[in-house]
């Protein structure tokens, strides 16, 4: 079997293979739209078993925001499938390795993905860096106890008018929120698909001429009661706390809506602190973004930290099993990182380093259950790492690519 | 006379007397939509182990008790150790007398009573989450409702364990459980240290007999004869006609080490004839989540656990330790118990020990007494709370500074509810 780049002329065949492995069909029109608006053909891979497509994979190029505001290039891994006829032969492992090699060559410092199943990617060094909550809210109980004062207004627009304003609000938010990634103009047109997402509504929250927040949502009504609706919030993004309060007041106050279901909300969303009845916000944890470092020193150096400290961390590569000891000096404007022979304070697999990077899980907890080893010489190293990697607001990525 | 006073006309508030205990319990249980089971054992336990009637504040309409409130003093683990704590409890108003301000008046009186008895920090587990914020309580911790199909519960790593899980009866548990609870409390904040009378009651043979089929199972985990953990659980019998699909309900899982905890989870997840496990007091920081090979299969729903109500900021703030040294002047706003209002200068040294004094200094930050209660246990971050509004930073960076001082990493528990 051979892994190679996908050729333009076989893109439709490739897409049929990808969708087929996920139990789905496609068509020429949808494929052409995807080719034009989404994919970078030179980042798409196919695993050929003579003339059969046995597996697929690839990546989209994004910039991701790190704590402190740095933007770094990352590979948004997707399209990972193995043909049902070719399972259990190492196809996926080979494709993942090739994706990582290619991405490193391009200068990507990390790769990120949304997993179809949560047991798949730990073995390749991915850690669950950015979990999220899905929300179910009975809107009868959603009065605010208190909230930041908001003064903006709402506009509801059709797709073509909404996209530029949503882009504006998204960009204002993205640049300051750990974990958020770029979405190009073309990609906006792809995500808000003229056919596949035709049922979506768009609301923009504006203060003066500035678009500060938006939501994409759909409505579904009880088939036997046209006045009993459920709102599905696909994406709700707000650049400021006031805009967040204003946007959610809009979403929770729609006539005929009995329940609001929202996906991939931040685990530290302040709405729970605003509600007079916080327990009515039913949250369920989901794993959302898995991340693997492709360049560990770069990822450590490019974020900022709330405290100054230093640690020697031994990291094991999930694929090669090679270890390296990194001496890291953490500071409020970044870090310096160099290879060292000094004995480590903390010993971990790369997946655990990625998991604790965005402030959503503590090093001490992973150490407590044995996933991270703490040197007997520096028993408080895990607690120090908790303080070093604390991130507020914590990582979030609303973009299900 | 304002309308509020009118609404309370004819209602008398006072301490309950010992001979009124039965009436108190009857009203209290009815308030939670239940019936008081007036068996002698239960009444005796209530006398011996729970709040003395002199701690109660009752509302009377004539001779009838129409509102109940009380408090229990116990030790609670907080960052840096344990402290005296005022557990507010038994808060009910009879369905015939709601919406008149009875609860507000009882709450005010019981907090004054606690303060006068020297209590500096009060708290409770709320029956509903919309009640206590207005009285200055802040949501101070969260736990999870955890559910999993046990057939999806393979671990990705199994910590090396050399011990054994064994069934235990109530006699054995009476010996083993309090010791393990104490060991666990040494590592967890938010744990109530149960008095002996409570342990006696939990493992009381007569009480357990009365539970019949609802009585729990107990197992212990020991390595080389040393007990390191226990679990208490019940089985709810179910089937889909062809197969048993029993539900395992975890009441308590207490472990002194992470490997003991893993071994007990493995035991609970592997019980035959069961297909689902539910733990309604699962820690916010779930070790189980990170043990699972397929973590998405564990459903975790967070909800509020302990609500904290600061009664005396100086004593309260010096009863815990802090994660970093520093100094901050906090202005506290408290409409319900105005005696806590003021500006407090909190100073922590490099070991986390603190002093606190009332000060004339200009405050660095202004927050409600509820917000101060929310961050007290170290489990909630002020930066998250501040994004919901209502907090004024006079000196830039104070929120982040308080995050560093107050937030405690590592293990929280918030067990049990009381």
Question: What can you see in these coordinates?
Answer:
The complex is a heterodimer of chains A (401) and B (418). Chain A has 401 residues and is of the alpha+beta class. Chain A has eleven helices and 17 strands. Chain A has helices at residues 11-21, 28-37, 91-106, 159-174, 185-191, 241-252, 271-274, 296-302, 350-356, 363-368, 381-389; strands at residues 2-5, 44-49, 52-65, 71-82, 110-114, 127-138, 153-157, 201-207, 210-222, 225-238, 257-265, 281-293, 309-316, 323-331, 334-339, 346-349, 372-374. In chain A, helix 2 runs antiparallel to helix 5 (185-191). Chain A is globular, with a radius of gyration of 22 Å. Chain A starts with a strand and ends in a 12-residue tail after the last helix. The model of chain A has no long low-confidence stretch (mean pLDDT 96). Chain B has helices at residues 3-7, 21-31, 40-49, 102-116, 170-185, 196-202, 205-211, 258-269, 287-291, 313-317, 369-376, 382-386, 398-406; strands spanning 11-14, 57-61, 64-78, 81-93, 121-125, 138-139, 142-149, 164-167, 189-193, 217-223, 226-236, 246-255, 274-283, 298-304, 306-310, 326-333, 342-348, 354-358, 365-368, 392-393, 412-415. In chain B, strands 1, 2, 3, 4, 5, 6, 9, 15 and 21 form a nine-stranded mixed beta sheet that branches. A seven-stranded mixed beta sheet of chain B has the order 8-10-11-12-13-7-14, sandwiched between helices. A five-stranded mixed beta sheet of chain B has the order 18-17-16-19-20. In chain B, 28% of the residues lie in helices and 34% in strands. By secondary structure, chain B is α+β, with helices and mostly antiparallel strands. The two termini of chain B are 38 Å apart. The chains are: A alpha+beta (401), B alpha+beta (418).
